[in-house]
Write a structure and sequence with these properties.
Number of domains: 2
CATH superfamily of the largest domain: Tetracycline Repressor, domain 2
Order of helices and strands: HHHHHHHHH
CATH architecture of the largest domain: Orthogonal Bundle
Helix content: over 70%
Structural class: mainly alpha
Distance between the termini: 68 Å
Length: 195
């Protein structure tokens, strides 16, 4: 019987599951999704293959969990950064702070590594819904600022966010990069609103 390394069996299982997901993420980011196998995860964690299978029945299930957990981390970071914010300008600033923090945590490296990975239809649909939900604060802020072409504004703001993420991943200060990106985006939204 494996040694329990937490106060309860449930905590032990939760830690082991997290260890498996972290190992899977390291493999995907470092080597690509094609390298993600139960054997590779077992070798990286020091667990036996049957132990990994106890948490995930296949490498596809592991990949799906990895994608969903990564997106959940981004959503939680976004919610924390925008909680209680009512001003559209502060909402934009909070959104960019969340993007910078998420990039600093390495969450976007995982997303980039998985960009062309085939995923089950229900997972793709959940991610599409999640992306729409994550973009909604920006749409709401743009509406409140008087922007009428929300789709065009969103595409431009997403471009600013992509640059922010690249700069943070290249070693830029997350706070400084978020402040610059938000200021630039707000200036653009004001221009689109005719200010």
């Amino acid at each position: 019987m494996p040694r329990i390394t937490a106060p309860t069996v449930a905590e032990h299982r939760a830690r082991r599951r997290a260890d498996v997901l972290r190992a899977a993420e390291q493999i995907v980011v470092g080597e690509g999704s094609h390298a993600l196998t139960v054997s590779a995860v077992a070798a990286r964690t020091g667990l036996a293959r049957p132990s990994v299978y106890a948490y995930f029945p296949s490498s596809e299930a592991l990949l799906v969990a990895l994608v969903e957990e990564g997106f959940d981390r981004w959503t939680a970071t976004l919610q924390d950064a925008t909680a209680g914010v009512t001003s559209p300008r502060e909402l934009v600033r909070g959104w960019f702070r969340a993007a910078a923090l998420s990039a600093a945590q390495g969450n976007h490296l995982l997303a980039a590594a998985l960009r062309d990975t085939p995923l089950p239809q229900d997972t793709r649909e959940r991610l599409a819904r999640g992306h729409r939900t994550a973009a909604e604060p920006l749409h709401a802020a743009a509406r409140e600022l008087g922007v009428t072409d929300l789709e065009g504004a969103s595409a431009l703001v997403q471009g600013v966010a992509a640059t922010l993420i690249e700069r943070v991943e290249a070693g830029g200060d997350p706070d400084g990069e978020a402040t610059r990106a938000a200021s630039f985006a707000l200036g653009g939204l004001d221009a689109l609103a005719g200010r």
